[in-house]
Amino acid sequence: MDKINKTDNEWREILSEEEFLVTRKKGTERAFTGKYYKNEESGKYLCICCGNELFSSEHKYESGSGWPSFYLPLNEKNIEEESDLSHFMRRTEVKCAKCGAHLGHVFDDGPQPTGKRFCINSVSLKFEKK
Predict the structure, then answer these.
(1) Given strand 91-96, what is the order of strands in its sheet?
(2) Cis peptide before 111 (omega within 30 of 0)
(3) pLDDT at 88 over 80
(4) Catalytic choice (49, 96, 99, 119)
């Protein structure tokens, strides 16, 4: 996969301020406010920055966390996981493998068959209806 590298100024030209703060500066949208938190339509979730296919509505579930949650990525090669020790916590950050956008975090408290909860910021996603 060809990586996309842009400067902060280049990202600012194509992203809203909130999209930039979440995806490029590792921010987080407020819980229960994201546009895809309650989305129940069929389709795919893409990276807001580069269009990389990340998650499917088939793997989305209600976790009660306040963010869209998935138990499986669409293609594991399209995401990267990295250790995150910020905010006095030990977590695993989820990033877009193509452009490095911060998407959210993954936890080991999800449903079967994976036991994973990919807790993703709506603002880092673009939904493509089926």
Answers:
(1) 60-61, 69-70, 117-120, 102-107, 91-96, 79-84
(2) no
(3) no
(4) 119
